[in-house]
UniProtKB/TrEMBL annotation:
GO terms for molecular function: methyltransferase activity. Keywords: Methyltransferase, S-adenosyl-L-methionine, Transferase. Pfam families: Methyltransf_24. InterPro entries: SAM-dependent_MTases_sf (IPR029063), SAM_O-MeTrfase (IPR002935). This is Class I SAM-dependent methyltransferase.
Length: 234
């Protein structure tokens, strides 16, 4: 998929300036030693294996970002669905969070509930959101998303499932009861790691679970799913 020219132009100049800086920093950051020569390194974890503590720590200082076109797509989907409550699994330094918070603000207000397990990343994300003028629209929850997202009241309009693949289905199951009919679930990296996401994709692509799903050619494959009905007990 060819990149869209000047995609940041859809945002206000203050947000765009922060994102330009962050994308430049991400582009210039070398991969961690444990994942040398493998992009962000996620695809090097053996199929079916959880990340080791050492591998997880190796990603603690890494930008884990959506590409600009992917992030712009998320912004547009949030605008199209008039999203007021968005959940993000995997905030990192806040690039995608800025896009989502801008959409919520431009929809008239609401909240992006972000999740991050690394304290210094969460704090820097808050700094970046403050610089972008979006701090009031974001609630970043520090810790394991499988726990920090358990008290969602709903209705949730959009879930960006963009954290570690070995827990993607667990996080999805936690958030699903709060998703309204018509809510979107957007998942990055599924095309780069189809085997790692196998059980997760099988769940989303089975209409018996209350979703319909399609893969789009962002970043090697991004899954976009719609909640079509209340799902069975999960």
């Amino acid at each position: 998929m060819n990149p869209t020219p000047e995609v940041l132009a859809m945002l206000d100049p203050r947000c765009a300036a922060v994102l330009e800086r962050l994308y430049a920093e991400a582009e210039n950051q070398p991969p961690p030693d444990l994942f040398e020569g493998a992009g962000d390194g996620l695809e090097t974890v053996p199929v079916g294996a959880a990340f080791t503590a050492e591998q997880t720590r190796a990603l603690d200082d890494q930008f884990m970002t959506l590409e600009k076109d992917q992030a712009a797509f998320c912004y547009l989907q949030a605008r199209a669905t008039r999203a007021r409550t968005v959940v993000e699994f995997g905030t990192s330094f806040g690039l995608s969070t800025i896009w989502l918070a801008a959409a919520v603000r431009d929809n008239g207000g609401g909240v992006v509930i972000g999740t991050e397990r690394v304290a210094r990343k969460a704090e820097q994300a808050r700094v970046n959101l403050r610089e972008a003028g979006l701090e009031q629209y974001v609630d970043i929850r520090l810790g394991d998303a499988r726990e920090t997202l358990r008290d969602l009241d709903g209705p949730v309009d959009l879930l960006l499932n963009d954290g570690f693949p070995d827990v993607a289905l667990d996080v999805h199951r936690v958030v699903t009861p709060a998703l309204r009919p018509g809510a979107l679930v957007i998942t990055d990296n599924v095309g780069l790691m189809p085997d790692h996401y196998g059980p997760y994709l099988a769940f989303l692509r089975d209409p018996a679970n209350g979703f319909i799903s399609v893969q789009l050619p962002f970043h090697g494959g991004t899954e976009v799913s719609v909640r079509i009905s209340p799902s069975p007990e999960i």
